[in-house]
Specification:
This protein has 479 residues and is an alpha+beta fold. The chain is 25% helix and 12% strand. It has helices at 3-18, 61-72, 97-100, 153-156, 224-228, 232-236, 278-290, 307-311, 325-337, 349-360, 443-449, 455-463, 466-478, and strands at 91-92, 121-126, 149-150, 172-183, 189-200, 212-217, 255-258, 263-266, 371-372, 384-385, 393-395, 413-415. It has a two-stranded antiparallel sheet. The chain is globular.
Length: 479
């Protein structure tokens, strides 16, 4: 059997498993009763401040809430008498996990032109070059991530100047919004916006001339344990790097470095699928975003030109890190077991029509609807889940390109983001902060930014009637 035929057969088996092997009319599979339960029997009741998956054993619920408390708490600078939560920085972006993921949800970006980025979003940096373990070559003065805050008293109080000997924040970060109009064939117009990060007050010298910047917004944490429980074979069945079947979609796997196993592994978490496990993803956020050393990332994010940072007091405990393996495991357990809310208005006629438009436009080519989980954790095992993502890398075109490679991901590639609960906890009319940099205020804007491998699906949306477009948007909002 040829590679193309094998890929087509494997993908067909995945779809058949998703929809009971039924034949689809007009490309639209029959509606399954369990589509209203994104996390299967583990789905939770929608409310503000999601609790654990419904399948989590009662005996494990206290561990979930202990991890949630650690994710919510603000870390403080060392040394203090409160050694359970000191060690902030010396350079950092946020003081807690919830600052970037409020309530476990998506981060926010300032909507006003020229506004300062306060938390929930950040800038990744690198320069050209290969690095097997890091995936990128850090910028010499500022590392792989810009840190806009420091433990200097003036920084903690929001003042611009620092005293002699204090650690200076690396820079200030503001956003300039570039607007562009878009007009549909039927004459309806919308305004699309793209954020341009602006750096000021660079404290440790200029960026290298060939430095690459990528502005990122925090992703939601819902259902990450169930995503990790998707069998690798189910995702690999959708891989088609050379588009041998000619459908215009060529999903790829990003192979990254697993620090615990000390080997290359399949990436699945992060905007560019640059983390192989949930454990490493959480550990990387502690180190890079809050400046909390841990068993996976034991070093502070200080570069050679930052002597005050390197000389700052550490909050490390007896085990040599600022959050030890046991406390880190509690936060990982919280992130792993955070619930996914049941769908809303799933049986509304407009939502059902939007579902048809979703499949007819070809959105399911990347946003693979469902999988059956397999996990050594009993509460994560054997669920039919509906994340609507293939978790592979796709070329999304010039409009979304950041020009910054990461491991095997190119500067035009992004991991397909899950659609489930994407509008959860947002007030009506508020920005959804969608896509990797939070630029899209609505599902409509997010679709219109799609390019590259998603061009055909985007054009199908653009050429459809206003009623069909509204129905598709309503369907996405129901997930």
């Amino acid at each position: 059997m040829s590679v193309a035929s094998h890929r087509q057969l494997s993908a067909a088996l995945v779809v058949a498993a998703s929809f009971g092997g039924c034949q689809c009319d007009d490309g639209v599979p029959p509606l399954r009763p369990d589509e209203t339960l994104p996390a299967g029997k583990a789905s939770t009741t929608a409310r503000r401040g999601l609790g654990p998956l419904a399948s989590l054993p009662r005996d494990d619920v206290p561990m979930f809430h202990a991890g949630k408390a650690l994710a919510r708490q603000p870390w403080i600078r060392a040394p203090t008498t409160t050694d359970a939560r000191d060690g902030l920085g010396p350079l950092y972006n946020s003081r807690s996990c919830f600052a970037c993921h409020p309530g476990g949800g998506r981060g926010t970006v300032p909507q006003k032109n020229g506004a300062r980025v306060a938390g929930g979003a950040l800038v990744r940096l690198s320069v050209p070059g290969d690095n097997l373990t890091e995936g990128v070559t850090p910028e010499p003065h500022y590392g792989a991530q810009l840190q806009t805050k420091s433990v200097a008293l003036s920084s903690l109080l929001g003042r611009k100047t620092t005293r002699k000997g204090e650690v200076k924040p690396e820079a200030t970060l503001t956003l300039a919004w570039e607007e562009r109009p878009f007009t549909y064939p039927d004459g309806h117009s919308v305004t699309l916006r793209r954020p341009e990060p602006k750096l000021g007050d660079l404290a440790y010298g200029p960026l290298r001339d060939d430095a690459m910047m990528s502005f990122r917004n925090g992703s939601p944490l819902y259902g990450l344990g169930l995503i990790e429980a998707i069998p690798a074979a189910a995702i690999e069945a959708l891989v088609d790097p050379d588009d041998r079947n000619g459908d215009g979609i060529s999903g790829r796997t990003n192979y990254v470095w697993d620090r615990t196993a000390q080997r290359r592994a399949r990436g699945i978490f992060g905007h560019k699928a640059n983390q192989p496990t949930l454990h490493q993803q959480v550990a990387a956020a502690f180190a890079g975003d809050i400046g909390i050393t841990n068993p996976v990332f034991p070093d502070q994010p200080c570069t050679a030109v930052q002597p005050e940072c390197n000389a700052s007091p550490s909050g490390a405990g007896p085990k040599g890190v600022e959050i030890d393996a046991e406390l880190l495991a509690l936060v990982v357990a919280y992130v792993r077991d955070l619930g996914v809310p049941k769908r809303r208005h799933a049986e509304d006629p407009e939502v059902l029509e939007g579902r048809k438009q979703f499949y007819r436009a070809g959105c399911a080519g990347c946003h693979q609807p469902s999988y059956e989980t397999s996990s050594p954790h009993a509460h994560l095992d054997g669920h039919r889940i509906w994340p609507y993502a293939d978790f592979l890398l796709h070329d999304m075109g010039d409009g979304l390109a950041d020009g910054r490679p990461d491991h095997e991901a190119t500067g035009r590639e992004w991991r397909t983001a899950p659609l489930w609960a994407s509008g959860y906890q947002r007030k009506p009319g508020a920005s959804l902060h969608l896509l990797h940099d939070g630029r899209a205020r609505t599902y409509e804007e997010a679709i219109l930014w799609h390019g590259g491998e998603a061009t055909a699906a985007r054009e199908a949306f653009v050429s459809s009637s206003a009623e069909d477009r509204a129905a598709l948007v309503r369907f996405l909002g129901s997930l």
